[in-house]
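Sequence, please.
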């Protein structure tokens, strides 16, 4: 059936309420482009009406610009696609000066994905964004290596995950904080609980009742790669199912 036929006579599809909430953030509909798959949104403006989306999550932003991995960055496998972009991004200050002024004019939820290689870098990215209008929420990518802890992923250890969420929560006063968990863990429930507890504690610490539901926790991606391509074997982190 044509979806438009499901709409009662006298109504247009635009009358149907598809809105959803994530924590305290209300989205027009549940379509949210994932971080890294949609650039900074603007690159897709000629292909899709950005205001028809529930929102989009920007490419991950770091304190300083990152050039990313050398090519090839993508590889087809029999059951999906591998990527190794290397977290290429323009850095938070260029984002603020060049991208945000245009993004601000778009009527959709712009969620800014944030990462760092140290706890301080996460906080600094948020600190810079807190001075700006435009973003609807932050999404914390905790799948990053912590260079101060021998490159162990922030999101792979409950204590480290809690620490980065606490610090981010204290910095993110202005808008909701989403935490994107890493699936590369033995017990994701443990990490999720630690993250929720850390977010709650710090909501009390900053003393704002308005922040009560400002933490949303979800999982990033599926990692299930058994491919034999030699390039692919070195880049399992970015496996996507076809
Ligand atoms: C090319 C590419 C770049 C990505 N870059 C980021 C990123 O910068 N930050 C992030 O949190 N996730 C990033 N991701 C992960 C996606 O946001 C998303 O979590 C993942 O693709 C969802 O899983 P699925 O592809 O298996 O559906 C990237 C994914 C792809 C394919």
């Amino acid at each position: 059936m044509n979806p438009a036929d499901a709409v009662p006579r006298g109504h247009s599809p635009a009358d149907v309420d598809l809105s959803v909430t994530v924590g305290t953030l209300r989205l027009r509909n549940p379509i949210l482009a994932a971080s890294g798959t949609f650039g900074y949104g603007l690159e897709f403006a000629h292909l899709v009406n950005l205001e028809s989306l529930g929102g989009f999550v920007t490419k991950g932003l770091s304190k300083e610009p990152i050039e990313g991995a050398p090519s090839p960055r993508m590889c087809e496998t029999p059951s999906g696609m591998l990527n190794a972009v290397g977290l290429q991004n323009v850095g938070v200050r260029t984002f603020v000066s060049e991208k945000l002024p245009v993004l601000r004019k778009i009527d959709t939820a712009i969620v800014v994905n944030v990462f760092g290689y140290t706890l301080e870098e996460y906080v600094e990215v948020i600190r810079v964004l807190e001075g700006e209008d435009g973003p609807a929420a932050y999404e914390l990518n905790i799948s990053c290596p912590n260079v101060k802890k021998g490159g162990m992923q922030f999101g792979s250890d409950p204590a480290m995950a809690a620490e980065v969420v606490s610090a981010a929560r204290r910095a993110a006063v202005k808008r909701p904080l989403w935490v994107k968990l890493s699936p590369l863990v033995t017990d994701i429930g443990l990490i999720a609980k630690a993250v929720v507890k850390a977010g709650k504690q710090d909501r009390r610490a900053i003393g704002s009742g308005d922040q009560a539901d400002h933490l949303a926790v979800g999982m990033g991606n599926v990692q299930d790669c058994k491919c034999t391509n030699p390039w692919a074997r070195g880049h399992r982190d970015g496996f996507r199912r076809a």
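Confidence is low (pLDDT under 50) at residues 203-213, 221-228.
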